[in-house]
Amino acid sequence: TIRNRDTMEQERVKIADLESYIENSLEF
């Protein structure tokens, strides 16, 4: 369903944000 695809995309974005956030915090 479209809603399911939306949820999966949102989860993917959350994971990507988490990864970039961790990378930024590791730099300092």
Number of strands: 0
Terminal Cα separation, in Å? 42 Å
Low-confidence stretches: none
Number of domains: 1
Spatial shape? rod-shaped
| Arithmetic mean pLDDT | 87
How many strands, which pairing sense, and closed or not: the largest β-sheet?
none
Cα gyration radius (Å): 12 Å
The helix/strand order is: H
User: Strand pairing plus helix content: what structural class?
Assistant: mainly alpha
Number of helices: 1
- Helix percentage: over 70%
Strand content: under 5%
Domain Anticodon-binding: 1-24
Protein name: Anticodon-binding domain-containing protein
GO biological process, one term: tRNA aminoacylation for protein translation
GO molecular function: aminoacyl-tRNA ligase activity; ATP binding
Descriptive report:
This is Anticodon-binding domain-containing protein. GO terms for molecular function: aminoacyl-tRNA ligase activity; ATP binding. InterPro entries: Anticodon-bd, Anticodon-bd_dom_sf. The protein is an all-alpha fold. It has one domain. Helix content is 93%, strand content 0%. The chain has 1 helix and no strands. It is rod-shaped, with a radius of gyration of 12 Å. The model has no long low-confidence stretch (mean pLDDT 87).
